[in-house]
Amino acid sequence: MSFAGTILRIDLERERVDTEPTSKYVSSLFGGALLGSFIFTSEVAPQTRPFDPSNVLMFNTGPLTGTLFGNKGEFASKTPERTNNPYVRVGMGGQFPSELKFAGYDHLIIRGKAVRPVYISIENERVELRDAAHLWGLDVWETQARIKEEQGDPEVQVACIGPAGENLVVYALIMHDINNTASRKGLGAVMGSKNLKAIAVRGTRGLKIKEPEALLKAYERFFREITQGRAYAFARMLHTEGISRQIAEGYVYAYGADVPEEVPPSPMITFLKRYMVKPLGCAFCPIQCHQNFSVPEIGNGGANCVNYFGLIYGQLYGQRDLHTWWEKTLLSNRYGLDSLIIESIGGFLMELYEEGVIGPEDTEGIPMERGSRHAIRAIIEKVARREGFGSMFSSGIGPATETLARMKGVDPSVLLQLADQYDNQFPYGVVEYAPDIGPVSKYRVGEVERVPGFADAYGNIPAYAEILKIPPRKVKELLDEWASEASERITGDRELWRRPKYDPRYAKMVVYKENEFLLGDLTGHCEVKSAYLEHYGVKFSFEDYREWIRAATGRDYTAEQLFEFTHRLRVLTDAYNALCHMTIGETPYVGKPMERLASFPVPGRPTDKEELRRIQEDYCRLRGYDAETGIPTKEELERLGFGHLAEALYAG
Amino acid sequence: MKRVVLYAERCVGCRVCEAVCSLVNEGEADPTRSRIKVVRKIENQVLRAIPVYCLQCETAPCESTCPFRALTRNEEGVILVDTERCMGCRLCEIACPAGAIVVDPRRRVATKCDLCTSMGEPQCVKFCFPKAIELVEVERVGRRRANERSERFLELGGQL
To answer: Between A598 and A220, whose confidence is greater?
Structure first.
């Protein structure tokens, strides 16, 4: 019930299609990201490289995907970016995930490499590999339109790659519809490495629901809570967070800072009013958190959170106005390139140009002047097409730095220092967002940010004040109130989040918020609703999820069991990633992000390094990790039923 | 007497109406069995979404075409399918100018919107958050539409 019931396995090399029942795994692994990750970590050897044919590209949906309660799915694979987390899961919504379930499949497992460019066509039980030679080279939107036309059905849902993915650019994305993307971590390149241009799905089999009336009743409450009151306006504008932060110049409105009575009008709100056609989003979701824009002389398209984040870092490449941002976003999307990496590549090249390290002769006569739209256009096209100077960056900023250093006869560290020095002016920047520069980073510490008093919400104060037509001070009061409620719910102390000092309960908040994020991946309901909304005054608890899951599937998992499933997902992922590093002889690096975190205060987060270290120790204890290495202990892995990983990790 | 009126420009193509309709009427999550269908068209990366549903025509082609007299009206003028009489011949499907009556893929009889007669109000309307569909008294439909259009007209005038 509400599971589609089947896992679809496609071997591109042998051109073979197999299926197996989802029920084989469900009782111990629930579903969604946990079930998918278990299959991945059991079947893909840790030493597998992202572009090896034996690497698997998965698509996971959750038991709530396709019901009224959600339409989230995720791609999962080994990432071609150099990072502390080689195994990644990248969420994607839109119409695709539910369509896959309506076709009868909960998970899609793709392995091997096709001998020629192909696309996968799924129409209920009919699964075929079709020739994609005529689609190779097309952009993401042309590809989708051509497939729909060929299949004679506008309701076919397509996820595809553009030229960036075909050219194995490590920052390539997977695109669906106007702008539903699996943006980060270069999974578009993994798809390209398999000679797989697209996956087209049409499903008309529907999903059985255990208790339709109970589900509708639960949805009524969910719908009411979301759409009534102020939280709705907040949620709808959630993804415009970057804009206001751009004005706020970082976290000046963070905890402790005074909020002025008046704020200057937000240019992004003006842009929205002028150019937004309508909101966009996933099927069956009352939030619709993306926006569809039509901008004369530049073009039409959509913008999502990753695109908006670009506004914050736009300063790196000297973004002058929102038209520059829009042109960059649209062009990157069209080529199937993660729009956010352009800030890093552009910012890096422009810094080197300003410092006189490179000249126009190094970039095919195009001066890398900060803020130049011509330069930005050239970077996107060259990187996506792996042409000329862009080809250096197509394999990552790290390798490009080495090539540039060789060309200029300098040590790569000199160039990295330049980038890093510039980068430090921003909360995040080149080094943070391009982990293949220098040592791999340890992200877990970064998640200390996911606590009540969540920085993103505070950065939004000016925009919310304008949208809600209330004074900024009032917005801050609301956010403070909601943060206090969350703090009380998790730790029993309303004021804990206001004290940026070590507290033994602090790690508990981190674990709790992490698990709430993971609940979105586990169920197919999306993290905006399982975790983010709390910062906007709407909370759906594990108990609520229990009710929805019971009505949809007929399976009654207690809130504690659901919490444990999310914990298992975290442990499984961390153990497998640690195993990948050990197998190839790398040591995850923890130092730098810790310093970075300590230097950028966010509300309620301690900044003292020693205090952060103690929080990390507490965190490890709660998760069952070794405090020294940050790796799950043998006992914890065995307790959770991940004996295969315990054995491999602790073999020697 | 009430009818559902459409403000197509407000529709965001979320398909909550489809999911609610199939859940209420068929007990499943299956948009192909929904009485209301959202046609999503993407042209040059702009989404156009149009909900398609039975308009309860005063002179209904489906009703007059049905050879088995399976389509009847209740006192509110809502066209209902008598599933005992329906043979699933699809003539109504062919005749409907809106594409709002179809033969259900499982039950093999015609299905169409009955304004959720048994539930008191159409559930799709209840959950349409952008208010692209609304339930309005028949005699107010024209007036309401005129008001809506004049606002748009004024908006356009304001830009000139």
So the answer is: A220
Q: Do A209 and B45 touch (CB under 8 A)?
A: no
Q: Residues A213-238: pLDDT tens digits? A: 999 999 999 998 888 766 666 555 54
Residue B19, class by beta-carbon neighbours within 10 Å (0-12 exposed, 13-18 middle, 19+ buried)? buried
In the structure, how many helices (H) and strands (E) does chain A have?
A: 29, 16
Provide, as residue numbers in chain A, all residues whose Cβ is less than 8 Å from the Cβ of B19: 67-68, 283-284
Domains belonging to chain A, first-starting first, are: 6-202 (3.60.9.10), 232-430 (1.10.569.10), 474-649 (1.10.599.10)
What is the per-residue pLDDT for A249? 34
What pLDDT, in 10s, does the model give residues A141-198? 999 999 999 999 999 999 999 999 999 999 999 999 999 999 988 999 999 999 999 9
Taking the Cβ of residue A280 and every Cβ of chain B, the question of whether any pair is shorter than 8 Å is answered with yes
Residue indicated by tokens 């008598």 = B82
SS (H, E, C) B65-129: HCCCCCEEECCCCCEEECCCCCCCCCHHHHHCCCCCCEECCCCCCEECCCCCHHHCCCHHHHCCC
Low-confidence ranges of chain B (pLDDT < 70): 156-160
DSSP 8-state assignment for residue A440: P
- CA separation, residue A503 to residues A208, A410, A447 (Å): 47, 47, 17
Contact across the interface for B12 and A278, Cβ inside 8 Å:
yes
**Which single residue is written with the structure tokens 């009710």?**
A547
Angle between helical axes of A542-553 and A212-227 (0-180°, round to 10)? 140
Whether chain B has a CB inside 8 Å of the CB on A504: the answer is: no
**Dist CA A554 CA A351 (whole Å):** 58
Locate the chain B residue with the closest alpha carbon to A157. B40
- Residue A542's beta-bridge partner residues? none
The CATH number of the domain holding residue B87 is 3.30.70.20
Mean pLDDT of chain A: 84
Closest to B66 (Cα-Cα) out of B84, B83, B90:
B90
The phi and psi torsions of B70 (rounded to 5 degrees) equal -85, -10
Domain that holds residue B83: 56-112
Long-range contacts of B68-71 (CB under 8 A, 24+ apart): B70/B110, B71/B110
